[in-house]
Predict the 3D structure of the following.
Amino acid sequence: MNATPANVRFLGATLVAPGLGILTLFLFVPLALIVGLSDLTYSPTKIWLPVLTAVNYEKFFHPYYLGVMWTTIGHDWRWTGPRVARLMIRRASNGSILSGTMTT
């Protein structure tokens, strides 16, 4: 078999296609469903109603939650793995993973 550029491209696409299909099916499709359903109105009797709303994102962008996310991201950039492990071990108690507030 000749290794022409067309054959190499076809072989590459053939090798990548199954993994890409699985990734699409089990990662991208569920993520798209989550994003799509998060724009709909919640109903305690029907789970969701087909009415678009931004209420679900109002809580996400509340200053308190943005502060928590920013603090977490800031610590992720500065703290090393051993420091996080020491903090978790120090805060762990019977029946819980972490207890109390996390302080530096």
The radius of gyration is 23 Å.
